[in-house]
Please model this.
Amino acid sequence: MTYNITAPEQLNANINLPASKSISNRALVIYALSGGEILPDNLSDCDDTEVIIEALKYMPETIDIKAAGTAMRFMTAFLAVTPGTHVITGTERMRNRPIHILVDALRRLGADIEYTEKDGFPPLRITGKELEGGRLDIQGNVSSQFISALLMIAPKLKNGLKLKLDGDIISRPYVDLTLCTMRDFGVDAEWTDTDIIEVKPKPYTPIKYYIESDWSAASYWYEMVALSKDPEAEVELNGLTDGSLQGDSVVKYLFNMLGIKTIFGNKQRGVPTTVRLKKIGIRSARLDYDFKNQPDLAQTFVVTCAMMNMPFHFTGLASLHIKETDRIAALKTEMKKLGYIIDDGDGTELSWNGERCEPDADIAIDTYEDHRMALAFAPAAMTLGSIKINNPQVVTKSYPNFWDDLRKAGFIISE
Model:
């Protein structure tokens, strides 16, 4: 399937954003570990969250988490401390995404985990049992989801967990989000040094829990306002909170440099409100930023800056190689179709100095089974007039109503 997306001349919309996938997935696992009977409220309806809900509800012998990387990491740790034997597997791409760092760490804590096919990769056969816990060292530059998976089960460990993160720590905001969610459920989990986290052995307390809207999803609406030719373009986004611990909430600062003002209806911390986006007419000449703490925003800003003819240099992108696709390679390929020569430096960065090439005659953006490719490239229609997106259904992984919301905002979408 291919969508042809035609942008409206004026942009004025009020959008109910999806709930945060990051918070939903953490809250669900913690809810299950707490023995709670009331599901968190306003859970994300995306694919990644749905597979966790299904797995926790039915706990089948074989758990297929499909393409959900977060679910694979979080459920692997959860199953290691949950009685019973289960096999956890996923799509072909998931079976080729490395998980040995997490498995090795869990085994050092005493977990019973076997690889059923290829060493270092899913599927995994896991027999859950009580784990001793104690001191554990792990590299800080691994996926934050490995770290978060270990932290969330830590209160269940006999001796708790003292986790030391060696070297450079990437995606720290996601670790902080995990710790905050854990504390909301009544456990003691704190940074005790710049590289050490301690979690005491203490049961989670079941509570009613509300999930705020997703700042990652908001980034695509910021992109639309930034790229709109309408100087009066304005979008209202519902359910976001000021002072959010979501790492991707940094979009409000970054897009300010791209000429977009963020206006909160209510600035009370933790209270969901409506956020208004509007143009301010002043922007930076170029954008340089280290995305090591917010790698999921890279696609948004590569497309936005190029479409705005703004040179950029983005670093801290090593983790993009092992996402739903190799996002660095995918971005270079698809941006070249649009006539932009993107450089990847040493493979951990992306930059553009203004170099152009002849764009393809009939451009259709490939999505590589990666939701963020579709989500980040669709707003380019604001600059190009229209754009074609192949396999647009991939957005269900994080933002199932994205195309309906675009229609609501005046976009014309045809197959």
The chain has two domains: 2-18+213-414, 21-199. The mean pLDDT is 95. The radius of gyration is 21 Å. Residues 317 and 348 are 5 Å apart (CA to CA).
